[in-house]
Design the sequence.
């Protein structure tokens, strides 16, 4: 069945995060990873939540579809995005990056 949840691949993105930045933004989506800046500090998961919110807005998907899979306490994270194909995610993020 085309488009069913069983056949659609969810995106997995490598994201490099800079916490405590002056503003929330996506800097680059070139190569294999995405660089983002968030204003939130890394304490108590605030930066992780800011990353989820930023990516959900950029990918036009619900925040609940964006999950930190690995790297909760690291600057480099593996992020899963349900309902968005890897190619679609990279294209949307590349269009937003300066």
Sequence:
């Amino acid at each position: 069945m085309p488009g069913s949840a069983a056949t659609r691949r969810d995106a997995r993105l490598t994201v490099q995060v800079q916490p405590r930045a002056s503003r929330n933004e996506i800097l680059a989506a070139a190569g294999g990873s995405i660089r983002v800046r968030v204003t939130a500090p890394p304490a108590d998961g605030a930066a992780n939540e800011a990353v989820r919110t930023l990516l959900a807005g950029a990918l036009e998907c619900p925040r609940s579809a964006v999950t930190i899979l690995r790297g909760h306490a690291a600057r480099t994270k593996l992020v899963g995005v349900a309902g968005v194909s890897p190619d679609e995610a990279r294209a949307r993020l590349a269009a937003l990056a300066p």
